[in-house]
Structures are given as C-alpha cells and as structure tokens.
Amino acid sequence: MPYYLRTEFTAQSRLVWALMNLYAQLESLPPDPRLEITPFAVFMAFSVEAYLNSIGFRVVQFWETIERIPWRDKVEILHSVSGREPKWGEEPLQFVQELFRLRDRLAHGKPELLRSVPYASRESAHAAVGPLVEEPEWYRRLDQAWAVSAKVRFNRAMVYFGALHGFHESDHLLRSSTSIEYDA
C-alpha cells in the first residue's frame, strides 16, 4: 500500500515569512534614513491580499470564480459572509487602505515631475543633488519609522481578517501542514 505526504501550502505564509525576515534585518540595523523600505510595503500588501484569498477559498464556495476582483471587494465579501459591515474609517481597515494606496502607486505609478525649493545659484543647486533629492510626499513617508509602526498595524489587520471567520490569531502565519496519507 503506497504512502503519500500531503501538504497544504499557503502563499500568504511565504510572503509573511519573507516580510518577517526583512524585519529581522531592519531591527538589527541602526536607524538609517537611506534604508530602502519599499519592499516592506510591497510584501505587506501582497501578504494581505494572499490572506484574503486564503480565507475566501475556505469560507466562500465560489471564491475561485471571483479571486481576481479588487482587494476592496474581497474585504466587502468576507465581511458580508461573516455578517459584519466593514468600518473603513477605523483601524485596521484604515491601514489596509493606506497600504494598498502605496502598493497601487508603486505598481501603477506614472512619472511625477517634482520641483525643489529655489536655490540662489547653480552651484548650490548642483551641490544639493544626491540620491534622495526629491521624492513625492507619499513615497517619503516610507521610512524606517513607518516600517516599524506598520509591523504592528499589519499584524492587527491579519488577525482581524482571520477573526472575521473564527480563524486563530496565528492563522496567517501557518506555513503549511503536512500529513501522511495512504491508499487503502
């Protein structure tokens, strides 16, 4: 009689794991305003959407036919199925909206023309040129302080989504589960 390993793999867990590895590196470094924080925002948004899909597949029979709808619609459906109304003006949904605005600006970004403060001379303007000269306000917020505060807010959002359907607070962290099957 053959035996098989059966593993249930979750995509969001790999994303969350990668994100937590980024945080381990961040927390071991001194504060640095030049540190690239963009991957934190991207992995958070991917993780949230992957977790919404994970929950959806488990609680909504027709999820496979709608999984490509916008993230906001997924949140609405998961709330509706749980008999609750999303409170978009409150945490953690405020954070999730912020996160997806950042993700959308990064994924669907268009060039932005920025202009600095005036300089008295060409030489002083030339001396000011550097790697972080001018960035849009929305992007400048992606700094180490944002990443640190976002970690707590991200975890609250993930726990919130799981709790809508009675999943354990660590459900979004489950990497996979493996069991042994055999054909009788």
Reconstruct the topology from this structure.
Layout: E1 3-9, H1 11-27, H2 38-59, H3 63-66, H4 71-82, H5 93-107, H6 122-128, H7 137-140, H8 144-163, E2 176-182
Antiparallel strand pairs: 1-2
Helix pairs in contact: 1-2, 2-4, 2-5, 2-8
Features:
184 residues, 55% helix, mainly alpha, single chain
Rounded to the nearest angstrom, the radius of gyration is 21 Å
Assess the beta-strand content as a share of residues. Answer: 5-15%
Q: What is the mean predicted local confidence, pLDDT?
A: 88
Which strand order spans the largest sheet, edge to edge or round the barrel? 1-2
Q: Number of helix segments?
A: 8
Q: What characteristic shape results from the CA principal axes?
A: elongated
Structural class: mainly alpha
Helical fraction: 40-55%
Domains (count): 1
Can you give a write-up of this model?
The protein is mainly alpha-helical and 184 residues long. The chain has one domain (3-109, 139-182). The protein has helices at 11-27, 38-59, 63-66, 71-82, 93-107, 122-128, 137-140, 144-163; strands spanning 3-9, 176-182. It has a two-stranded antiparallel ribbon with strand order 1-2. It is elongated, with a radius of gyration of 21 Å.
Task: Give a short overview.
The chain has 184 residues and is mostly helical.
